[in-house]
Amino acid sequence: MLDAPEAPPVAVDAAALPALLPEALRPPHTPRRLGHATEAAVLLVIVGVSAGLELIGLQAEAYGNTYYAAAVKSMLASWHNFIFVSSDLGGFVSVDKPPLGLWVQVLSARILGFNGVALLLPQALAGIASVGVLYLVVRRVFGGAAGLIAAAALAGMRISVVTARNNTMDTTLVLTLLTGAWLASLAAESGRLKLLLLCAVLVGLAFNIKMLQAYVVVPGFALAYFAFAPLSWGRKLVHLTAAALVLVVVSLSWSVGVDLTPASARPYVGSSGSNSAIALALTYNGLGRVTQAIAPWLAMHHISLPLDLDNMPGMAPGIGDPGLWRLFNPALAGQSSWLLAPAIVGAICAVAAVWLARRKRVDAVRRIIEPAEVADAGSGPPVVALRQRAVAVRRRGVALAVWGGWLLACGAYFSFARFYHTYYLTMLGPAVAALFGIGVIVLWRAYVRGDVLGWALPLLLWGSGVLQVYFTSVSSQWQARLEPWVLATTIGASLILLARPAARPRMLGAVFSIALVGLLIAPTVWSITSVQNGAGAAWLPTAGPGGAAGFGPGGFRGNGGPGFGGGPPGGTFAGGGSVAMTFAGQNWDPLDPRLVNYLESNQGATTYLAATPTSSYASVLTLLSDQPVMALGGYQGWDRIVDPTQLANLGRQGTIRFFLLPGGSGGCRFGGNTLDATADLTAWVQASCTAVPDSAWQGQSSAGLQLYDCAAGIA
């Protein structure tokens, strides 16, 4: 069957063109825009709230994670330690992360002196800056109201606030990737290769903050460029290939440099399992956190790169079972999922709106304006308006691809990954906040115009309020306090909007604003509570109401740290076994000063003050002294760095004499997986060395720790 002949072009008067355009291409009927002064004032309040949450009482968080704090102190000691991110002053083993985030902390400590505030300040400032950058990125496409809503959502997101008050590097990573999202958007809108390459450089730098965690944004960035850049498909592929090469080169520059350095001239690469920085990126900080089943199919095995996917726990406490609804479990949802559901629904509605507008624009160009007529019309107002509208539609499509890709990739990982720490959920923050701001504004504008899509707005507000009350159920006390406010504002506003009274737009706008405030009440209040409880001082920060130790709100913190008189060293995980975790913060009790005094008085000419199985004890001793302390098994005793014979040789060479060991038996067990790589070292010390009487180095006897003197055993 032959296609029907196309209808002949219809001559159109340029002056009458606007009346013929589809409604989606006409300027939308929206409420009065925010004035510049009003918008600036609201932004100032939001940034001020963010600054208060990040900076007030920052000194009370002490050193935060002592593992990274000790590494910064070590990196300040020499260029060798700085370049290779040594976790100890002696350059024995490196930390389990790449250098860039820690280098920023070293610079801060160099300027302000080595103290807790100097270590935490870079992350706090990055958290504040992230709020401002997100506002700018969202505003340039969807307007000031959407930008302000997104900024407010990020400013009050609990886990983002707590992580920004800790010396883990995720907040610095988020700021870097947010800037990359800005560049990716500009590149996709214009098709400019330079912007795309600059974005690749930024993501590569982000890789050198937290390794493969940075790549979670890459699919969204690539999709935006491939789908919307105004170039031919071939040029798009060439540009993306060039960007991929730049990304790989920048990402692996430090790792390749480390691996090319002789092992004897640098620290052991901590947590790699194979003394390889590239293997560390691909396994412990990459694929190992997703699955172990992928190992047999890794192509890297064919080039003899050692990849050890067993060198990490098989599970993580507190994240629940993998599944589609994991992020909506109240215990986990309270961290960053307060606005996740409205962000998802709003994003779907925004995509639908852009798709409809784009389709109608194509129809208008094909059926109303023929190319010859556009040329005849020149650059008059109707043609200019059409082109501007087309650009606006493309920009919105780009933004939704960038943020939607970010959210989809993060959501998939956090829903199904076998291992991650709770504070990693900070990565969800920008995408959730951006899509929440975009989605509710798109629905609000549709509601004001009377579009069918607009009726989703009151339903969305009602459902989001009920869901937030469900999230607060983990704390009955706070649920009782917050539930009336959340329900009154969201459900009340929803009912008014559903009734659609014959009221002025300003009145409806006020109702809508009250509903938004209602959705921000619970996460902001809980953020304030987390700040008051000093949750940022945790070894692994977790936001939540009320202070607690162990795996409850507040993360790994409390008075039960290793050797601090709070029970067995670090507590016990599921599966049994003693775990040496360090708990830091303003309330932690330091190791008995007599231990440090005894070690320094008897150290003699030995290089290291003492050796311990893990970095947990070593980091505390490093912070309490200016002497190198050796972590025999790296971060958590998982690295096989030396064997008993080599350890004995280190003793004969005058490198080490004293060993501080935890009491009890067994290694580090996570979900039944024993990862102790120092068991034979501990056995050698116990068999070859002399136990130092407790009375010589601590005020009271403790079954949790035992000090050994190996001066005689290794002579």
Features:
two-stranded parallel ribbon, single chain, 3% strand, 715 residues, mainly alpha, disordered N terminus, 26 helices
How would you characterize the overall build of this protein?
With 715 residues, this protein is mainly α. Among the domains are: 335-535, no CATH class; 593-709, no CATH class. The chain has helices at 17-20, 36-55, 66-75, 79-83, 100-112, 116-142, 144-155, 158-164, 170-190, 193-210, 218-228, 233-260, 277-282, 330-336, 340-367, 371-377, 381-416, 429-449, 456-471, 476-499, 505-532, 593-602, 615-624, 644-652, 679-688, 694-697, and strands at residues 610-612, 629-631, 658-662, 669-670, 673-674, 690-691, 705-709. The strands form three sheets. Strands 3-7-6 form a three-stranded antiparallel β-sheet, with helices on one face. It has a two-stranded parallel sheet with strand order 1-2. The longest helix has 36 residues, at 381-416. The protein is elongated, with a radius of gyration of 29 Å.
